[in-house]
Design goal:
Layout lengths: L7 E5 L3 H13 L3 E5 L2 H10 L4 E5 L1 E2 L2 E2 H11 L5 E5 L4 H9 L4 E4 L4 H14 L3
Parallel strand pairs: 1-2, 1-3, 3-6, 6-7
Antiparallel strand pairs: 4-5
Helix pairs in contact: 2-3
Length: 127
Amino acid sequence: MTHNEGTMVLVLDDDIDAVVAVSHMLREGGYRPGMATDSAKALDLLRDLPYRLIISDLWMPGGDGIAFVRDARRIRPGIPAILLTARGDWDTYMEALSDGIVDYAQKPVRKSDLLAMVDRALTETPA
C-alpha cells in the first residue's frame, strides 16, 4: 500500500473493460477509483467528489484525453493526469507533456507500472 491510501482517482475510458481493469488495479493499490465511460459523466464526477488524480484514455469518440484534461482543469485547476493509449506516437506524447500531463503509458499497462505512476503523480502534486 502507498501513503496515498484511500485517495480518489477518476478513471475515464470509452471501453468499460479498460475502466474496470484500471479501477481494479487501483483498488488493489489502496486507491478509491471513480469510473466513467464518457467525458460528461467524468466531469460531473469531478464536480461532485474530491478526486486528486485523473487517468484517462487518450483517444475516445467525441474527443481526446488531452482535451478532457483541459476541461477538467476548469473545474479542478492543477489536477494531475495520466494518459493511457493503445496507439500513441511521439507528437501526441510531446503535446501531452507540454499540456502538463504527468505521465503517459501504452495499454495494456502493468499494475506495478500504473501504481508507480499514480504514486509519483500524487507525490509530486500538492493536495
